[in-house]
Amino acid sequence: MVLLESILTGTTIAIGSGTLLYYYQKELLYPAKYRKKSRDFTVPKFFDEEIPCTEVILTTKDKVRIRAYLCKRKNDEEACERPTVLALHGNRGNIGKQSSITRNFYHNFKCNIMLLSYRGYGSSDGIPSEEGIKIDAQTALDYIKQHPILHDTKVILYGSSLGGAVAIDLAAKNEDEIDALIIENTFLSIPKLLPTLFYPLKYITFICTQIWPSDEQIKKIKKIPILFLSGKLDALVSQQHMKELYELSNTLAGKEWKEFPYGNHGNTITQPCYWNVIEEFLLWAIFDKNSKRGMNCQ
């Protein structure tokens, strides 16, 4: 009797969860509409004070106006010689929260950096979806490759959480346009992520319309070096997802794995030596090894 009650309870929960998942999966995965912090975007003051930054309004092929901020090296001659980073944020924030990313890539690594705001996030128009965000990322990359100063610069994709899935997809489709890929705490796919969040969802993942199949896309990347940054204590996206992505990757350009023992889903970027690991990766993947001094690990 107890077993029957447990089965009925589990079935009821699964059905109820499935109904919510089917009708509201976009709202659950891309909560910008309901999270004030994701929608409200304020340009950090240091952009104007420390880093030259220009707002860019892009129109996608499906006629959605999205925003990005381009932080280009002050001198055009330097800008055209340094790499350009396309930063792709997670599902719960926006580019106004990426001050650490901007400062490190701009000041310490002397890169240009473009911060993309997906449709429905920050000041961008539209409603988020897998198809739409992929279009947004492609639009941003196309802008860089057509830019009068940056068009021939080496391009680095940096993505965390959902941004990692966006970066993997973009790299898989544009290998000839991208020179390095950095991903942090991202997942194999949405259907494979859901059961780790709530086990009964294992039986209804077939109703997912938002897939983000990074486990399939990463296998298509053959000639781009990849850095995997993983927080061991990540309770939202199990570290096993990152480990499997690393194993599935068969790029011929080299790959590196770095685990942060005390990193969770949100604080991995603040862990000791996080930026040193990225620098070491860039030194062999992008920069001339003799052109830049290393940073002290603290």
TrEMBL record:
Spans through the membrane: none
UniProt domain AB hydrolase-1: residue ranges: 83-189
GO cellular component: membrane
Classification via InterPro entries: AB_hydrolase_1 (IPR000073), AB_hydrolase_fold (IPR029058)
Recorded superkingdom: Eukaryota
Any one GO molecular function term: palmitoyl-(protein) hydrolase activity
Family matches, as Pfam families: Abhydrolase_1
Name listed for the protein in its UniProt record: AB hydrolase-1 domain-containing protein
